[in-house]
Amino acid sequence: MASRKLFGRAFDIDAGxxxxxxxxxxxxxxxxxxxxxxxxxxxxxxxxxxxLYGDIPGFMILLPAxxxxxxxxxxxxxxxxxxxxxxxxxxxxxxxxxxxxxxxxLAKVTTLNFIVVGLFCVIVAAALRKIVKRLxxxxxxxQASESRATETExxxxxxxxxxxxxxxxxxxxxxxxxxxxRFAQIIGRTPDQIVGIKTSDVTHPEDIAPTQDALQxxxxxxxxxxxxxxxxxxxxxxxxxxxxxxxTSGSGExxxxxxxxxxxxxxxxxxxxxxxxxxxxxxxxxxxxxxxWVTAQDRTRAFVNQAYVAYHGGSYExxxxxxxxxxxxxxxxxxxxxxxxxxxxxxxxxxxxxxxxRTDGAYRWLRSFSRPRxxxxxxxxxxxxxxxxxxxxRQAGDDLKRINELLEDRVNxxxxxxxxxxxxxxxxxxxxxxxRLTGGVAHDxxxxxxxxxxxxxxxxRSPDDAAKRKKLGEAALSAARRxxxxxxxxxxxxxxxxxxPQPVDLNAHILEGEPLLKRAVGxxxxxxxxxxxxxxxxxxxxxxxxxxxxxxxxxxRHAVKDGGHIGIQTQSCEVEAGDVTDLPAxxxxxxxxxxxxxxxxxxxxxxxxxxxxxxKAVGKGTGLGLSQVYGFARQSGGAAHIRSxxxxxxQIRLYLPPLADGMAIAEPETIAAATSVSNRRLLLVxxxxxxxxxxxxxxxxxxFEVRTAETAPQALKLLADEAFDVxxxxxxxxxxxxxxxxxxxxxRDYPSMKVVxxxxxxxxxxxxxxxxxxxxxxxxxxxxxxxARILGGSDDATQS
Length: 800
Hints:
alpha+beta; five-stranded antiparallel beta sheet; flat
């Protein structure tokens, strides 16, 4: 009690000692420091109590410092405390060990006792510190072991509870001692309901005896197995494969059983379904009117149906094990064996057809189909075959073949008659079209010829009236130009017009021709342009495009009233397959001419691109304007498409292929002025005498010295005898040599001579040859100015 009062009521000596002993190990200088501090504290206490001791040295009061230092820091601290206490004690007492008086003698004895007791205390306290340390380590290790054991047990319980199989421990009385959640699920109970339940109460009555046999096998030291059914409270039955082992105590006495249960309900259901499927297959196969068989991997029959047995004859086993090859007709045997081996080798379905002997001895045609049977890993383990009698079908086929041959003769005759009728109809249609063409062209050309003939007649009868000659000459020339335009429209529709395509920007040409287009529509109608930003680059004949655009604008003007609007728009269009008739999918440049005029109905739109079709009064239109537009678009690799509704206006769109990569639009060039052609010699090759006479006059007026030839051979003869600067040759000529062939030979033989070709119509083959020709081309009819420009200008000048 005195010690408790000294250190305070809350201080426990036992707890304090163990706490001191548990302090961590220190460095030697830290131990020395602690020893000196403890000695200093106790010396201060001794000095305070010096009045009670008088002359008695009283070293024993310093022992607590020794004990505390030894417990806290070990032997070094304890020994330091002993030494420091002795020194400090003697300094306090002021005595020496060499004195002979009673006090000195008592001090010696006290010192000796303090040293002995102090060293003993140091040894005991240090040992106690080590013991406490070891006990603490043992306690920590024991706690860790217990923690690991607890964790292992928890993991084991968790593994058992989460196992896919049911695990249960059963006593000798057949009652459940413990089990996991899966076991509870298998028997249809909750985990809280399984302890104490008797396993025989949840086992199907038919499976109790097999379960007892498995228990006896487990008691004999082995492992018992049983497939059994467990009954749920709602009557549901669960199949489980159960493994049993006996559970023994430490003395070897059997105290129960451990069982592992695997749910096999799905496998049992699949097995039952398979048996039912096999039974159903046999029932279907046996009632089928065709032969069915199943072969094993060694090609023997594993199953045959009743139709097969009836065809083969004999018992089921005889039919199944009999050699089917003996049934094949001798003439078909080699072929069928070869086909059978080859078909099975592929591992794929195959078919065969041959004659097989029936049980009555008759040979019947059978057509068979075989399909491979595959194992779970995809390996071929046999074939399933089916065969049906096609004897009657083959006979019917032979009969049908004879009938077909007879019908083929009849059909050929009918087709020949049909072809003759179609030819007659086409001839009639061509004649009708020619009649329409002749009538339309005759009407227009008669009007033009009336002007030309009348004007020329008056000119001839009035040689002295210069003003009248000039006026009528201009009228005749204008009519002739209209005839030229009509001819070009006809050729464009029939795709016989020679095109001279070049890279152009349609926007630039539309803007350049805007004044002409505005004059064509007049001041009463507004013309609006919406041109694609960045240009509209294409590869077309610009003259034909301008003619097509003018035709569209003029047609639109006829459809709108005063105050109406006509629009011209260029844009890039993406065409999907089937969007526009006869136009492949892709990117196109579109030129659209739209108006807000009267529009068209479906019947008119269906014929709008036909030649000579017009809704205008007789003499007001040729019906070739939109035909020319259509012909130009198709010949340029595009299409023309119309959209219109009565009273809603019309929109006609031209689809033109964009300029190909790598092609550049040439900068506009100024046509060179005609240079002097004085003293230049020209060879004119023209088979038409009238055309040659006119051309001769025009050329001589231009300043050329001209020689003429009617055929290419005549031209080559003149070239061999005389020198010429220029040759102007027609393309289509008699004599077996065309103007193109003549130009090719002249270019080879006379490379310094300039060659110019001309024609009113050349044909597809010549058009193709002209496409990449290096010579300028002049289209008939031509004027003196055009001749002067192309013949007297630079060698690169061309006229399309």
